[in-house]
Amino acid sequence: MTNRYDTGMTVRRRVLGDAHVDRAEAAKTPFDQPFQEMITETAWGNCWASDAISDRERSMLTLALLAATGNFEEIPMHIRATARTGATQEDVAQAFMHVAVYAGVPKANHAFKLAKKTFAEMEDQGNAHP
């Protein structure tokens, strides 16, 4: 493993939490291991590890980009990560408002639906969010 991989794994655990990363690592197979290494090094060890912007800002950008591109499957994971990145519910709402204007109301509407459900689950689990 590379230093970038180790950095990426540290950042990934900080943002997504140990439980999530442990589940993902346990599910890794020889088939997807190269892919998992690549995203750990690039997404987490390069992009998320940069100190050019805060985790809060990066979280908002990530959620907006996921919604704008219709990659809804990862939105709940990144909503849960906001409890560690510092992005508030208002931050997330503002990000999705931008999605509505620049990428379309239906995408923003679906993103809001997923976020509301995930925030409610977090609250039910005792992980209340600001």
Automatic annotation (TrEMBL):
Residues 34-116 form the Carboxymuconolactone decarboxylase-like domain. It is an enzyme of class 4 (lyase). This is 4-carboxymuconolactone decarboxylase. NCBIfam families: decarb_PcaC (TIGR02425). It comes from the Bacteria. GO terms for molecular function: 4-carboxymuconolactone decarboxylase activity; peroxiredoxin activity. The keyword Lyase applies. The lineage of its organism: Bacteria, Pseudomonadati, Pseudomonadota, Alphaproteobacteria, Rhodobacterales. The keyword Nucleotide-binding does not apply. It comes from Sagittula salina. Keywords: Lyase.
